[in-house]
Amino acid sequence: MIEPIPPRKALDNLDLLILDLLQKESQLSNTDLARRVNLSPPATHARVKRLESEGFINRHVAILDQNMLGFTLICFIFVSTNLHQVKELEEFEQDIKSMPEVLECQCLTGEYDYMLKVANRNREELQRFIRKLNHFSFIGRIQTIVSIREVKDSTTLPII
């Protein structure tokens, strides 16, 4: 059964400004954030905590430089499955979530069922990952596309 979504307080312009600043500069101190949005530090803190508790802020992370850490082979892997049972799909998705090489997994419409964004250090790692995928008997087709250059990488949503 699908759980109903609890009602949330509507976001005002100040909430949107706070979210925009935090998604661009997550290490802003509460005092600096309060100064930038022209609000007292306690009021700013309360808004941030509310935005977190209501799910507008999922997590705070550090975004690492993949090239400096040796992950220079970024691939997009398209997967078609022969799965139609919800339980099997959920199990496959849980398996994908547990694979550290997978940075993103999107469920698609069209020719392929899933698109994976995968980070590897070299071709051998990619080959091992493809072999892991091939162990799933219900995968009908895999297409791998290697990224030759990243043009844009952003986690910033255009909210304001």
Q: List segments where confidence is low: pLDDT < 50 over at least 5 consecutive residues.
A: none
Number of strands: 4
Q: What is the rounded Rg?
A: 20 Å
Please give the alpha-carbon distance between the first and last residues: 35 Å
Q: What strand line-up does the widest sheet have?
A: 2-3-1-4
Give an overview of the whole structure.
The protein is an alpha+beta fold and 160 residues long. The protein has five helices and four strands. It has helices at residues 13-24, 30-37, 41-53, 86-97, 123-134, and strands spanning 73-81, 102-107, 114-120, 139-146. Strands 2-3-1-4 form a four-stranded antiparallel β-sheet, covered by helices on one side. The longest helix is centred in the first third of the chain and has 13 residues, at 41-53. The two termini are 35 Å apart. The model has no long low-confidence stretch (mean pLDDT 93).
